[in-house]
Amino acid sequence: xxxxxxxxxxxxxxKGLLRACLTxxxxxxxxxxxxxxxxxxxxxxxxxxxxxxxxPSVGFARACNQGIVLALEQYGAEYVALVNSDVVVSPAxxxxxxxxxxxxxxxxxxxxxxxxxxxxxxxxxxxxAPTAWSGVCQFLFLSALTRGRCRGxxxxxxxxxxxxxxxxVDWVSGAxxxxxxxxxxxxxxxxxRFFMYGEDVEWCCRLRRSSFSVWYAPWVEVxxxxxxxxxxxxxxxxxxxxxxxxxxxxxxxxLVFRLAAALGLGARRAVYTVAYIxxxxxxxxxxxNDMGVYARWAIGLG
Length: 302
What we know:
By secondary structure, the protein is α/β, with parallel strands linked by helices. It is 45% helix and 19% strand.
């Protein structure tokens, strides 16, 4: 079973992060069953030379879908793990996720709990289909106020701390996800119309519509050094999510979703700004700035 597992690592100008990611994935305990393909999208920081020099056993592809096709068609993979270059995951952790899929053929994909380097739980590790209602619940605080009874777009990882059984969701983050090859062959590859953001949500929701299950495994933890590459906050994730709502739920739900985002993210920006003024903590200033970027896009000023 595990002998046909291939990890697809996506990289773009993150040489230092990529070294740590590949070092973990190619650790000795993974030798012989976990194989790695590095997907590089035109890096200019020496990433390609790094892999050729330090990780000669790692294959290359130019796009994520090409990496998946290579793993499935040329190497006969039964399971494919998509791993971002800013994620540190060991072969043993991948093996746990693969074993869960092996035991349940109706499950197409599974993702772990994502934790930031400072120990905080990451927003966006998993969640539910983007609709007008899930947007209202998420952005206008209904999910938080009802302790998750009103399901928002993002799952609240804190609610599942210590949980030792899988949680059925509509999508898991593409930062680290293991998918069943048979399911990929049935529903197809990632939708290339969604570049960098939203493609994981769209893909997993497509799997769900094909009668597969998608699981979130909160007892399996992975460190995601989100933002470690120094990238500025981008509203692209919100734009992609809104586009998914427009495509799958039509214009009215799209407008409701976007309005809820504008109101909720604007309110968060105000709260974080007040917190920064009161405490002068840099984290609040950064959060206020991020929320401002997202809110301005939702309003139409981004």
